């Protein structure tokens, strides 16, 4: 599963990553603009092998990078597999692309399932006397907040 944040470079990086994954035989599901939490949800919800969010998190807008998630929505970090990825990349021993085994690419939306999951943690009736204020901070959470608001 792939997603990307609102940075101007995220979409191009995500599509280049998708192409490389497809060349390696991976079937790619692109959930579009998303926050990292949506990649965690999608990875678990779909039962896929992993997910990648193209983002530089809280870093300046001219930075970009990737957050990696393995099956079961578990983060990949320096002590949980990232060093293995580094060794593979540094070895540079990549087989040639086999067009017959190339992976697929599909754009999907899990927004409704994600919103349902989030709202499953609360009783909407208990919110009635409250006035809620959200600040998406110019981030990818804006559309999620809008979708939640539509259900309240």
What does this entry look like structurally?
The chain has a 6-stranded mixed sheet with strand order 5-4-3-1-2-6, sandwiched between helices. The chain has helices spanning 10-23, 36-46, 78-91, 111-119, 142-151; strands spanning 2-4, 28-33, 50-54, 66-70, 74-75, 105-107. It has a single domain (2-110), classed as Alpha-D-Glucose-1,6-Bisphosphate, Chain A, domain 3 (3-Layer(aba) Sandwich). The protein is built from 5 helices and 6 strands. It has 152 residues and is an alpha/beta fold.
Which helices and strands appear, and what pairs or packs with what?
Elements: E1 2-4, H1 10-23, E2 28-33, H2 36-46, E3 50-54, E4 66-70, E5 74-75, H3 78-91, E6 105-107, H4 111-119, H5 142-151
Parallel strand pairs: 1-2, 1-3, 2-6
Antiparallel strand pairs: 3-4, 4-5
Summarize the structure.
The protein has 152 residues and is of the alpha/beta class.
Provide keyphrases for this structure.
152 residues, alpha/beta, Alpha-D-Glucose-1,6-Bisphosphate, Chain A, domain 3, six-stranded mixed sheet, 5 helices, 16% strand, elongated
Helix content: 25-40%
Question: In total, how many beta strands?
Answer: 6
Give, in order, the helices and strands.
EHEHEEEHEHH
Mean pLDDT: 93
Number of helices: 5
Structural class: alpha/beta
State the CATH class.
Alpha Beta
- The main sheet orders its strands as 5-4-3-1-2-6
Strand content: 15-25%
Q: What's the multimeric state?
A: single chain
Task: Domain count, please report it.
Answer: 1
Shape: elongated
CATH-scheme architecture: 3-Layer(aba) Sandwich
Protein name: Phosphomannomutase
InterPro entries: A-D-PHexomutase_a/b/a-I (IPR005844), A-D-PHexomutase_a/b/a-I/II/III (IPR016055), A-D-PHexomutase_CS (IPR016066), Alpha-D-phosphohexomutase_SF (IPR005841)
Keywords: Isomerase, Magnesium, Metal-binding, Phosphoprotein
GO molecular function: magnesium ion binding; phosphomannomutase activity
């Amino acid at each position: 599963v792939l997603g990307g944040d609102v940075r101007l470079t995220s979409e191009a990086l995500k599509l280049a990553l998708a192409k490389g994954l497809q060349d390696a035989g991976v079937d790619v599901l692109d959930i579009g603009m998303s926050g990292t939490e949506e990649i965690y949800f999608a990875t678990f919800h779909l039962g896929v092998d992993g997910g990648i969010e193209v983002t530089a998190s809280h870093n300046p807008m001219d930075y970009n990078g990737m957050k990696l998630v393995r099956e079961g929505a578990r983060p990949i970090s320096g002590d949980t597999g990232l060093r293995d990825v580094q060794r593979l990349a540094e070895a540079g021993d990549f087989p040639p692309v086999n067009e017959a085994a190339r992976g697929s690419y599909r754009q999907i939306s899990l927004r409704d399932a994600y919103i349902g999951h989030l709202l499953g943690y609360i009783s909407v009736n208990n919110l009635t006397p409250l006035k809620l204020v959200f600040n998406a901070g110019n981030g990818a959470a804006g559309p999620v907040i809008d979708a939640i608001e539509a259900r309240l």
